[in-house]
Amino acid sequence: MKRVDASFTIVRNKIEVFTDGASSGNPGPAGCGVVIKEGQITREISCFIGQATNNVAEYIALIIALEEIKDKRDCDIIILSDSELIVRQMNGQYKVKNELLLSLYHRAKQLWRSNYSLVHIPREKNILADSLARRAVKLAHLVGQGGRLF
Q1: What is the pLDDT of residue 121?
Q2: How far apart are CA 137 and CA 24, in angstroms?
Q3: From CA 100, how far away is CA 58, in angstroms rounded?
Q4: By C-alpha distance, which of 111, 113, 92, 99 is closest to 56?
Q5: Which of 1, 26, 132, 143 is the most buried (most CB within 10 A)?
Q6: What percentage of residues in the chain have a pLDDT greater than 70?
Q7: Is 39 part of any domain?
Q8: Is 12 inside any structural domain?
């Protein structure tokens, strides 16, 4: 009898998550954009967050994304951001010195899973998330929020 060795390759699903924050002024009215691409399905999230700096908006966008994907454990998740600061802080290359950013950093770390990776990308590769973040700021201005959440 001939022995047959079989090798198996387990293919894990891959999810790409794009995040961006925007602030009109710095600080000023701010918004977040998140794009989650899972196979043929793309989800878009756009939200106004009130008065914030751009860095705060970037962290909140990351946290929103992490909340949205927290139950996805059997797949590889690549989070893509054009914020070099956020990527380097989350990856341990930069220290977080600002107190508000530090609290957001800790929240993001609480949500972090071993199947996630965070990668810096150029702005031109993050156009949709950027437009969602900017749209939230524009819509809030149009409806008279003037940078106030309520």
Answers
A1: 98
A2: 7
A3: 12
A4: 99
A5: 132
A6: 87
A7: yes
A8: no
**Contact predicate 111/66, CB 8 Å:** yes
Q: How many domains would you assign to the chain? A: 1
Q: With beta carbons less than 8 A apart as the criterion, state whether 147 and 50 touch.
A: yes
User: Which one, of 68, 67, 120, lies nearest residue 91 by Cα?
Assistant: 120
Domain that holds residue 53: 18-139
Rounded Cα gap, residues 92 and 11, in angstroms: 29
Rounded distance between C-alpha atoms, residue 63 and residue 44, angstroms: 15
Nearest to 49 by CA among 38, 37, 68, 63: 63
Give residue-wise pLDDT tens across range 57-105: 999 999 999 999 999 988 999 999 999 999 999 999 999 999 999 999 9
- Asked, for residue 49, whether it belongs to a domain, the answer is yes
Q: Is the pLDDT reported for residue 147 higher than 60?
A: no
Q: Residue 88 sits in a domain of what CATH number?
A: 3.30.420.10
What rounded mean pLDDT belongs to the chain?
91
Decide if 34 is inside a domain.
Answer: yes
